[in-house]
Amino acid sequence: MIVRRKTVRDSVAFEGLGLHTGVPVKMTVHPGQDGIAFRLGSERVLAHPSNVTDTTRSTRVGTVGTVEHIMSAFAGLEVTDAEVELDAPEVPGMDGSAGPYVVALNEVGFTFLGEREIPALFSRVFLQEDAIKLAIAKGEGWWRYTYDLGARWPGEMSFESSLGNYAEEIATSRTFALAEEVPVLIQHGLGQGLDEHSALIIGIEGYKNEARFSDEPARHKLLDLMGDLYLAGVPVRMLDVVGERTGHRVNVKAAALLAAAVFGD
To answer: Which secondary-structure segment (H or E) carries 110?
Structure first.
């Protein structure tokens, strides 16, 4: 498949708190010509599954944490090349979604860098660990995610999309947490940059704050899945993906398998 390489037309800056660390951070997305890379000080690390160093509640590439939201924005906008420069070791959480990234990147605009041929995925990538399932096949950009808490509210919810309305249907969905998990997360130094506006809290009988969508958790899990799988460098519109109960660890494991299946990485 022939893919047009795409980068931002000019640099665009974002400022906020790290989603988990709560540390103030400035992040600037610069035009690039050598894939997507994260730069912190003298370190430059390519966005690739082999460079993931942690998947605990988020995805870390090198020393840069929580890259999945900006990677999801790149995936949805089909950005193939960018230099992402930070002055602290976590991407700004913004409003807990990829929405602000999509808006700002669209506003600055894009430049095309030529074409690249990407081999088709001929063998399906499939992972299953008990109730966790993830299937990736050659396709046309049809994605489906099932979020399932079993007997606990809200039970099972699914969201599917052809990605044509990524900006409206997926990008604006926020990160979330179960109400009973919040004290534990805080105790372990996580979620320090979140509040009732940037995180959806799931109570035992309903949402504790206003949801943007009735199925916002399923949409956000799909957002995360897109960002993690895009580490493989395969355009999301080339794939049909079905995920159920996955997290960052399984997502990144699948991204590594996908990169190997397509590029031999």
So the answer is: strand 110-117
